[in-house]
Write a structure and sequence with these properties.
Elements (H helix, E strand, L loop, with lengths): L2 E7 L6 E7 L13 H9 L1 H4 L33 H10 L8 H11 L4 H5 L4 H31 L6 H13 L12 E2 L4 E2 L2
Antiparallel strand pairs: 1-2, 3-4
């Protein structure tokens, strides 16, 4: 059986003492004794956690329940304490051979919401993600079509139109602009047409 090392820092000294306790996925543990400051914290948030045992530090030191494969030890039990669960915890502190399989499962469900197999099971979250991605792409395409048809056509300057380009080129030829290497060098003034 693996040993879980729980670090508890003493408030009155700079020494950190290490406490070892046996650890298994079903092992019932007595609620940890709380220093006065933590007891005040628990009293403050008792309405949120209800009648649940605080069994560890948790993920970040707050008293909440989170099912997480990477950190499988929540700070509080999943279910609130009842007379039946208290009796089962007292029975589990004895010999585990006296517990039936149903009692072991019930004890596990008292402490944890999901098993590791349930946490690792595939979910349908990918469907929601793909729906959001496809809706975003569809909306983007419709915005593009609207902008191309209504906004960009209205914003084009008049200098881009074919009539304006033809008039500007004729004006440049008439004024003989770029006669050496420019536009006018490609125009035949004697025959009044463009050179081949």
């Amino acid at each position: 059986m693996a040993a879980l090392r729980v670090l508890q820092a003493s408030k009155h000294s700079n020494v950190t003492k290490i406490v070892s306790r046996s650890c298994s996925s079903l092992a019932p543990t007595a609620p940890l004794p709380l220093p006065p400051a933590e007891q005040e914290f628990r009293d403050k948030f008792l309405s949120r956690i209800g009648n649940r045992d605080i069994v560890g530090f948790g993920r970040n030191g707050t008293y909440n329940y989170i099912d997480d494969i990477m950190f499988p030890y929540p700070a509080i039990r999943w279910e609130q304490n009842t007379a039946a669960s208290e009796a089962l915890v007292q029975k589990a502190r004895g010999d585990w051979k006296n517990l039936s399989l149903e009692e072991k499962k019930s004890l596990y469900r008292h402490s944890f919401c999901q098993t590791f197999a349930e946490m690792k099971a595939p979910t349908s979250e990918w469907k929601i993600v793909w729906t959001i991605v496809l809706l975003t792409l569809t909306a983007s395409c419709w915005v593009y079509v609207f902008m191309r048809n209504n906004v960009f056509d209205a914003m084009l300057p008049k200098t881009i139109t074919r009539d304006h380009v033809t008039a500007t080129t004729a004006k440049m030829v008439k004024q003989r602009q770029g006669i050496v290497q420019g536009v006018s060098s490609k125009y035949d003034y004697e025959n009044q047409r463009w050179k081949d």
